[in-house]
Specification:
The complex is a heterodimer of chains A (259) and B (206).
Chain A (H helix, E strand, L loop, with lengths): L4 E9 L2 E6 L2 E7 L1 H10 L5 E5 L2 H4 L5 H10 L4 E4 L5 H9 L4 E4 L1 H5 L2 H10 L4 E9 L10 E5 L4 E6 H11 L3 E5 L12 H10 L4 E4 L5 H9 L5 E4 L1 H4 L5 H10 L9
Parallel strand pairs in A: 1-4, 1-12, 4-5, 5-6, 6-7, 7-10, 10-11, 11-12
Antiparallel strand pairs in A: 1-2, 2-3, 7-8, 8-9
Helix pairs in contact in A: 1-3
Chain B lengths: L1 E4 L7 H9 L4 E4 L2 H5 L3 E4 L5 H10 L3 H9 L4 E4 L1 H4 L4 E2 L5 E2 L6 E5 L11 E9 L13 E7 L1 E5 L5 E7 L2 E9 L2 E4 L7 H12 L5
Parallel strand pairs in B: 1-2, 1-3, 3-4, 4-13, 5-7
Antiparallel strand pairs in B: 5-6, 7-10, 8-9, 8-11, 11-12, 12-13
Classes of the chains: A alpha/beta (259), B alpha/beta (206).
């Protein structure tokens, strides 16, 4: 049976893993390569790295770091943040990443999804989206609006509409990162995840808000997520991946048991 | 020395790095003469079947691949590198493939719409036939998969391992004689995947 994936998210700034709440007040946590190895050995199913300042500082993604990760771990990992064009995608993938995640770029230029999928395969192209809760309206029938640049910019795009469009354009997977829940450890936004997952045929990864075992159980059972991204709950050392997986298995969720 | 065939079907970085991490020397090549001289061959690939077959034709690699397989060189197909070993694929409106393994490559057709395509993630492989590539690997271990099409063997003797997804119980590992192939990505399957690659390196093809 296909198992549900647990994906640690490593936000990287100046070669250090960092974590904030709702994209603010970041503190440094450690070396990205060391943390990647520790999580991979600890049983995570995949990793995602976001170069969180590349975009704002207008510099290219840290390719040397991608290469070092690819040498150090032999599980899939995605890289996002600061991807500006097909050439950036190619460099990240050739450095050894399994997937590349686009967010702001795809909103500005949706064709990058179809072009990337055509050049490198749909499985490589992840659409990351940062929806924020808004009043349901004609403009926002799903009740969620897409933001970009770490919540700084509102786009006027409806979240569900955007997810469907990304699927049509050829994205291989969608990461739904709730702006409202990010870093709070108060639980995933189940309704948002469920709505997106039930309305697209590609895998949906829930992100933002995971803080307890029950949050993960809920996002898989109720939220219909195919995978979940976690950060704070493991970065703080509060839980290990093994502990999380044991609890999910006990709750009847299909989880990879041997690594 | 592991020779990895580069036929422009995706990114070979992770395959190369995985073999290097277990102490193997790796040569990545698209040259027929180097393939014909190889001691052990890995035939990876992601992407679409038709593009893969077109590239193999253009690079004149089809005959060398047939020859090394016939000559008993240990050969490992991965993902698309497995699929094109079969007779044909439903992908791209029907694609004729190499026909080295009897059977066809079919599209997943799930009845449950919550069953997502592509299959992305870790799924179990049930060993159907003990094989040197599974040496020391516990039965029903999980491997990393990314695919929308799956191989359907018409000769059950060629099925080495099986996996269950969507509407299919399919051959996630298949082979005969010196030919082994896997639908999953051992190079992305952690310690257990590396063990499979190590087993392949230690296999003489018998």
């Amino acid at each position: 049976m296909l198992t549900k994936r647990i994906i640690p998210c490593l936000d990287v700034r100046n070669r250090k893993v960092t974590k904030g709440v709702k994209f603010q007040n970041n503190i440094d946590l450690g070396d990205p390569i060391e943390m990647a190895v520790a999580y991979s050995d600890g049983g995570c199913d995949e990793l995602v790295f976001y170069d969180i300042t590349a975009s704002a500082e207008g510099r290219p993604i840290d390719i040397e770091m991608v290469r070092e990760v690819a040498k150090a771990v032999h599980i899939p990992f995605a890289v996002g943040g600061g991807i500006k064009n097909l050439e950036d995608m190619r460099r990240v993938l050739l450095a050894g990443a399994e997937k590349v995640s686009v967010n702001t770029l795809a909103v500005r230029n949706p064709k990058i999804i179809s072009e990337g999928a055509k050049q490198f395969g749909a499985q490589c192209i992840v659409l990351g989206m940062d929806p924020v809760k808004v009043e349901k309206s004609e403009k926002f029938p799903s009740g969620y609006e897409i933001t970009t640049q770490g919540f700084r910019t509102r786009t006027g795009i409806d979240a569900l509409q955007w997810a469907k469009e990304a699927e049509e354009l050829g994205a291989g997977e969608i990461v739904v990162n709730s702006v409202d829940a990010d870093g709070t450890q108060a639980g995933f936004e189940i309704n948002l995840t469920k709505m997106i997952s039930e309305n697209v045929g590609i895998p949906v990864v829930a992100s933002g808000g995971g803080g307890t075992y029950q949050h993960l159980i809920d996002v898989f059972k109720e939220g219909k997520a195919d995978a979940a991204i976690i950060a704070s709950m493991i970065h703080t050392g509060k839980f290990t991946i093994k502990q999380i997986k044991d609890e999910l298995i006990a709750a009847g969720i299909p989880i990879r048991k041997k690594w | 020395m592991i020779t990895i065939i580069d036929y422009k079907a995706g990114n070979l970085t992770s395959v190369g790095l995985a073999f290097e991490s277990i102490g193997q020397e790796v040569k990545i090549t698209d040259k027929p003469e180097e393939i014909l001289r190889a001691e052990k061959i890995v035939f990876p690939g992601v992407g679409a079947a038709m593009a893969a077959m077109d590239n193999l034709k253009e690079l004149q690699l089809i005959e060398p691949i047939r020859k090394v397989i016939a000559d008993g060189v240990p050969f490992l197909g991965i993902c698309i590198g497995m699929q094109v070993l079969f007779e044909s694929s439903e992908e791209d409106g029907g694609t004729e493939c190499l026909g080295i393994l009897p059977g066809k490559v079919k599209k997943f057709r799930p009845s449950d719409k919550m069953c997502k395509i592509p299959q992305i993630g870790w799924n179990t492989v049930k060993v159907k036939k003990p094989h040197p590539i599974f040496e020391g690997i516990e039965d029903e271990s999980e491997f990393y998969f990314v695919h929308s099409f799956y191989p359907s063997c018409s000769d059950a003797n060629n099925i080495l391992g099986q996996t269950d997804y969507a509407d299919a119980v399919f051959a996630s590992a298949a082979g005969k004689n010196n030919l082994a192939s896997v639908q999953f990505h051992p190079e992305r399957s952690g310690r257990i995947g590396l063990r499979l690659l190590e087993n392949f390196c230690n296999w003489n093809g018998n």
